[in-house]
Amino acid sequence: MSGNPFLKTAVLIFSLLLLPFIAYGQDNTLNILYTGAVRGELEPCGCSPKTESGGVARLSGYIARNREGLRPYVLIDAGNSTAEDTPQGRLKTEALLNSFGIMGYDAAAFLEPASPRGVHDALTGGDLSPLIEKYGVPAISDYARDRSSVSVLRGPLRINISADPKGYKKGMFNILLTGKPVSEVRTIEGWDVIAASSGEILEQPVTAGKTVIVSGYPKGEKLGILTIHTDVFGVVSGFVHRWQPLGKDIEEDSNVRDVLNEYDRKVASLVDEEEKGISSNGPYLGGLICAVCHQPFMDGWKNTGHAGAFAALEKAGKSRDPECVKCHTVGYGEEGGFSSGATTPGLANVQCEACHGPGKGHVSDFTMPMRPVGEEVCLRCHTRENSPDFDFKTYFEKIRHK
Ligand code: HEC
Ligand code: HEC
Ligand code: HEC
Ligand code: HEC
């Protein structure tokens, strides 16, 4: 029988047919937890119920509390997650990297156009490099001089995570982190999973050949969870995807919260520096002065949400953050406008002059008209991002002040 070539072939074919079933029996699972395009958004502003989702403290809290159920997993950031290159932006980026370190990211990509100075600067001796080391973030980059990949082991799976589109490795499970738009990455071959950080929202992953493509939810509003099933050879046999919302109900990680509080304090002292040299002799007077002649309007205004706008920031611990203060006070950043609750308390909240314009001229001569207030004035603060439900007619009715 051993000499019968016919039988040999039959046995071989039979075994080959059986293989997928054997493989199926040894199915492996890997959860790929991914972020990308966070753009320095450490936490949501909470301006509207539609903008209360996300934030690194909740992300960390979610992962910490569900770690066992998520295992085996890799936690990756697909890039474009640092903030802009400004003094406050750099503080944000530092807080973000610190948080990534606490969460134990397996890899984070720092891609070519992400930092205005170029990522080569960032990873090899620039601003980011010492921070990345300080917080222990496994950084990879698509710039030639930098480290482009990391390898991790999860159960039987050897995983190669790379930022170099040509850097896939035979015999490993390959994940590419990229900033390119999804339409462009479709043609890149050799990868099991591609995680993009172009800021595109893909409700479900896109497949191209045998590659599964996902894209980090903008501003870190949700955590992407791609569950991959592989056969004994590490070949993808199926996947499931879901977006984990990060709403108010998710308990924050207190360690990351500490990092965010520290960030708020640093931003406040940054502002302290800038405050020196601000003159108080500007064109804004504050609502108390207006009330001398327009008391009924003052009474009406006090019943609107605008009168509580600064308290809302204090409650959120953000009353010293320029990025919040600018819409919750009068004339922030302008000559003689609000600078801080301590130095210019009379200009806190969305007062009269936030809409009607500075009143100095008008008070010395009533015939000098105040600025007409139309919808465009509201839209300076009621942006689509911060006030997605804004509608001039219905909103105006709510703030009528006489
Ligand atoms: C571009 C202007 C703008 C910026 C910047 C901004 N806000 Fe707001 N905020 C608004 C507007 C407008 C509303 C009211 C939205 C609505 O009701 O439609 C609001 C509402 C809020 C509320 C809800 C108030 C309440 O009493 O319910 C909170 C809290 C808040 N903002 C916090 C923040 C924080 C924290 C930041 C900074 C991270 C921030 N805002 C930045 C414009 C802004
Ligand atoms: C959120 C923006 C906003 C704020 C804040 C605001 N107003 Fe007004 N105010 C308006 C709008 C809009 C109108 C009606 C349109 C107009 O006449 O310009 C108006 C109308 C008025 C008028 C009547 C104008 C007229 O021609 O009849 C007076 C007076 C006035 N406001 C005074 C005040 C005073 C005083 C305060 C502060 C206590 C204040 N407003 C706060 C937006 C605002
Ligand atoms: C000393 C009294 C006085 C003070 C203070 C004063 N106003 Fe007036 N305001 C007037 C008078 C009087 C008129 C009516 C002028 C007219 O009809 O020509 C007027 C008109 C207005 C109008 C409607 C007509 C226009 O010119 O646009 C607005 C809006 C207004 N004031 C807002 C303010 C605001 C905001 C402040 C605070 C920054 C303020 N006023 C402070 C006396 C005052
Ligand atoms: C300088 C920034 C700014 C401008 C200008 C502004 N708003 Fe607001 N508005 C806010 C902020 C901040 C809040 C949230 C305040 C809070 O509830 O704590 C808010 C809240 C509101 C609310 C919800 C609170 C309530 O009283 O029901 C309405 C309605 C509203 N604004 C209408 C308007 C309209 C209409 C205009 C233009 C005439 C306008 N706003 C101009 C910043 C602004």
Structure description:
- The chain has 402 residues and is α/β, with parallel strands linked by helices.
- It folds into two domains: 26-245, 4-Layer Sandwich (Purple Acid Phosphatase, chain A, domain 2); 279-399, Flavocytochrome C3, Chain A (Flavocytochrome C3, Chain A, domain 2), CATH 1.10.1130.
- The protein is 36% helix and 17% strand.
- The strands form two sheets. The chain has a six-stranded mixed β-sheet with strand order 4-3-2-1-11-12. A six-stranded mixed β-sheet has the order 5-6-7-8-10-9, with no helix packed on it.
- The longest helix is centred in the middle third of the chain and has 22 residues, at 254-275.
- Mean pLDDT is 88; it is low at 20-25 and 114-122.
- The site of one heme C has 21 residues, from helix 9, helix 10, helix 11, helix 13 and helix 14.
- Residues 45-48, 305, 308, 312-313, 316, 318, 321, 323-324, 326-328, 381-383, 386-387, 389-390 line the site of one heme C.
